[in-house]
Design a protein that fits this description.
Length: 227
Amino acid sequence: MTQLCDRIQAVQDRLQAAAQRFGRPIEDVQLLAVSKTRPAEMVAQAMDCGLREFGENYASELDEKSRALGDRHPAWHFIGPIQSNKTRLIADTAQWAHSVDRERIARRLSEQRPVGAVPLNVCLQVNISAEDSKSGVALEDLPALAEAVAPLPGLKLRGLMAIPAPSDDFEEQRRAFARLREAQEDLIRRGFELDTLSMGMTDDLEAAVAEGATIVRVGTAIFGARG
């Protein structure tokens, strides 16, 4: 427990240092703990260390952890590829879906969001490095997808998400994140009201903060390397 709290504090210190270095208020950068493959007990421990926002990649695992935590209710963010047959679990349980990259998925989430629930916050996932192995909408198709998703009931389009190709070069990391920021700025000029950039992980969070990340998704630095 003490080690977990220490790791969380170390990540928060990194975020604080990056925000200060690049002239950003730390309040504008939210830490999202990526808890995929970790047991519900570890999520509970992280909550005891002060975290409230958790990211999951698998809908069934999200559902199981939510049930296991009982009356403890963290804010759940779904950050993995969204399968059509799993949209109801996400619509029922999550507060955020970061990885919407098709109109069909957005429509299913909209239709399956429970009546009376607050809107599901949605980010559009962009394949910012144009990798064949990555999910995400192509940059040239992003405006059309935003046009389709923004008016759907039960959803609130908040911004963009990306997982760039890995790089150890800080400036290359920044360039990838800058492309996402510029794509969001273009959508804002087109009239979309967006406030969220979900980008940056353990190895590149400083570059993400430099380019305007508002949500940084961190797993390894918090929970340790997966076995």
